[in-house]
Amino acid sequence: MQFGRSYEEFEVGATYKHWPGKTVTEFDDHMFCLLTMNHHPLHLDEHYAEETTQFGKNVVVGNYVYSILLGMSVPDVSGKAIANLEIESLRHVAPTFHGDTLYGETRVLDKWESTSKDDRGVVHVETIGYNQDGKVVCLFRRKVMVPKTSYLTERGGEQPGRPVPVPDKNWPGPDAT
């Protein structure tokens, strides 16, 4: 299973469809609101949302929607990233409700080699998130510094830092009969 890409693997114009989707539950939304101290009643108080908002029900907090989509993109985009450099724009264009399932995809807008270090580059991408009906709910653009293959090779390959299992009395090793 791929986890991120090296600079050479990105192609301008390519689109990565993130899988699987994520159904947003009321618990998820409330827990995220409480963890981040966003106690706005639009997200937490069903009666308030029914009586006083244009939607008539709770709306999922936007930062959670963004976080889900960002997380979905990691295996395809930033799983090997050296640094997330910039969130250029973030737009919530439609509400997400409890029970909606979010899907995302990311398009490569541009890429360029680092001017200061020859073992990395920057990838400029746009991620869109949409619900089970295909309605786009969130869009964001970001720039990610990613390694070139040479960077990965110098640091242990595809899974740098991964330990090797040590044989002992519980596991004699792969060559034991």
From TrEMBL:
Name of the protein this chain belongs to: MaoC family dehydratase
Entry superkingdom: Bacteria
PANTHER family attached to this UniProt entry: BETA-METHYLMALYL-COA DEHYDRATASE, MONOAMINE OXIDASE-RELATED
Region spans: Disordered: 151-177
Pfam name, any one: MC_hydratase
Source organism of this protein record: Nocardioides donggukensis
Molecular functions per Gene Ontology: lyase activity
